Structure formats: C-alpha cells, structure tokens
Amino acid sequence: MNNKISGIEAFFIMCMFSINTIILNAPKLIIENNQTGAFINSIYIGIIALIFLIIMNKLLNYFPNFDILDIANFLGGKIFKIFIGFLFILIFSIIICTFIAQFIILLKTVYFKDSPILFILMFFILCILFSNLNGFISIKNSICFYFPISIITLSFIFINNISNFTFIKVTPVFGQSFYNTFIQGFSNIFVFTNLILILFLPPFCNNSKSLKKATIFSLIFSCILLTLTIGILLSIYPFDNSISNFNPLYSLTRRIELSQFIERADALFVTIALFSCFSYIGFLAYLITQTIKKIFILENEKILIYSITPYIIGFTFLLINTNTYNKSDIYKNLFNITIYIISPLILFISALKKKLM
C-alpha cells in the first residue's frame, strides 16, 4: 500500500500536533513559568524555532527521503541507530501517556466522576489499536478529516473570547524579569512538538520541497495559535489563580453561550478535542511501531501495536496515580536536548561525513 503523503497532508499532520499540544495545556505551562511575560515569550520561542527549522531543512537537503534513524545509521552504524531509535520511542511514549492522562482527568472531573480510570482509558487504547491495525492511510485520513473541524472549533472559541483581549493584561511584558522571559523561558521551546516530525516525515512525503514549505507554514501557524491563546487567557484569568487549576481551553468554552437553549459549549469542545486526540495518539503510536520496525528490521509493524498498548496502559496509570502527568520538567529537558541539540549535531556531522566521502 502507498504510504506517501502530499505537502498539504504533511501540513495538516504537523498542525494537528500543534493543536493537540495547545489542548494539552502548553499555554498554561508557559503562563505558569513566565506570567505576563508568556505573551512575548511565545513570540520569542516561535522566532527561535523558525530559525532552527530553516537550519534543519538545509541540513536535511543532504539526505532526501531519509529519516533520523537512517541518518543515525549512516553516521554511527546499527548500535547508534538503536540508541537514537529508543530515545525517540521514549519521547513518543511520554507524549502519548501524558496526553491521555490529562484528558482522562478532564473527563473524569467533569463528566465521569464515578467511572473507573481503566474504563475511560480503554477508549483511548481501542482507538490506538483500531487506527494502527487499519494502517497508515487510515491514520492519515483521520487527521486530515479532523483538522478542519478542529480549526473551526478553535476559531469559534477565539472569536467568542477575543473581545476580552487587552494589552494592559499582558503587562509588564517581561513578566517577572527579562531573564525569566528570555533566558529561562527559552526552554519553553519544547511546546513546538510538531518539529519532531521533520525528522520522520521525509520518507513518507512525495516531494521534499513541498514538505519543507509545509514545515515552515505549520510552524508559523503554531506560533500564531499559541500566542493568540496565551493572550486571551491572560486577559480573562489571573495567572496566579484560576489559570493553574483547570484546562484553559476548556475553561474558555464554558464562557460561551450558544443560545438560550444551549448555554454551554464545553461538551462540543470536549467531543471534537477527543476525536482530534484519537487521531493524534494514533499517529504517535504508528511512529513508535515504525521506529521499532526499523530498529529490528521487521517486515510488518501492525502486529507490534499489541505489544505496545500494555506499556501505554501501565505508564498512563503510573502518571495518574503519582500525579506526575502535569509535571513537564523531565519531558521538557529530554525533548529539548534530543530535538535541539542531539538531532542537529547528528545532521551536521553526517553532512560533513557525506561531503568528505
């Protein structure tokens, strides 16, 4: 079966990562770390991420149709490829389990107070199983289908809350200090999780030029979406009170009244966010199976999903029971070191090696 994607499909996939990261409380984390400086910090890390992306695209020109595992194998052989592969498997697993854990807490708190965690978790696990057993085309199509719906939903939320935005509420613009916003706040660049896809999508894309355009436009879209969300949240909620207690986008939807008969739009948001989540975690699980397939040179990745799901269940339970699903420090450091330090070094040294060959 043809697993190739077009440039527009790559754009949809990368943007869907951004949407789900924002649903996953990325704006809340930035606001907690930088307070009113979060608004300018989101612009700052967006510019840094864009510069990084341009450099990475230049380096990837030396290896068309190669992903990071192929490049690692070229640079250091099979052992190095295995190490890098397991590092990314760990990152993908943390993203999946953290996202599921936070969504379960939201659902249990608001709608299913008396339901066991395992009951809610099974819906996410079944989604991962069904989507991966149906293959890449099914996962890709689900993302392309839910992306426009998610955009319409987010636009509706922003339009109904944008009137509350005021620049007075985002002052002082540097928050606690210039150092906190620009030096310590640099680590917030981890919120651009869609950057991880530039290391894995090249083998799937029909045209490398269209992929590069998709990466640039998707990052610009991500930055605008993040900045807009943070600006609205700062204008509505005090950063030291209600913003830290609940999912911020869900809180925004509760302020919307559709009509006198439908006073709350939060159920609509949760439903659409849930389907977006299903397509998102399904794609991440697929990347895990693809990585394992490449590491061990297997013929079929579908059967691997049966082995992966028990680990997802166990890790998610651990995050919920230890109340660490909302702790971002370990994941933030791991992601930033892997994506912004290790990966560029691999590409740069590999490019030098290829030039000298």
Structure commentary:
The structure is a single chain. This protein is mainly alpha-helical and 357 residues long. 70% of the residues lie in helices and 0% in strands. It is globular, with a radius of gyration of 20 Å. It starts with 6 loop residues before the first helix and ends with a helix.
**Overall average residue pLDDT:** 84
Share in β-strands: under 5%
Number of helices: 12
- List low-pLDDT spans: none
CATH-level-4 superfamily name: Amino acid/polyamine transporter I
Largest sheet features: none
Based on secondary structure, the structural category is: mainly alpha
CATH topology: Amino acid/polyamine transporter I
Q: Can you count the beta strands? A: 0
For this entry, what is the oligomeric state of its chains? single chain
* Distance, first to last CA: 35 Å
Round the Cα radius of gyration to an integer and report it: 20 Å
Encode the helix/strand succession as letters: HHHHHHHHHHHH
* Backbone shape: globular
Q: Can you identify the CATH class?
A: Mainly Alpha
Helix content: over 70%
Number of domains in the coordinates? 1
CATH structural architecture: Up-down Bundle
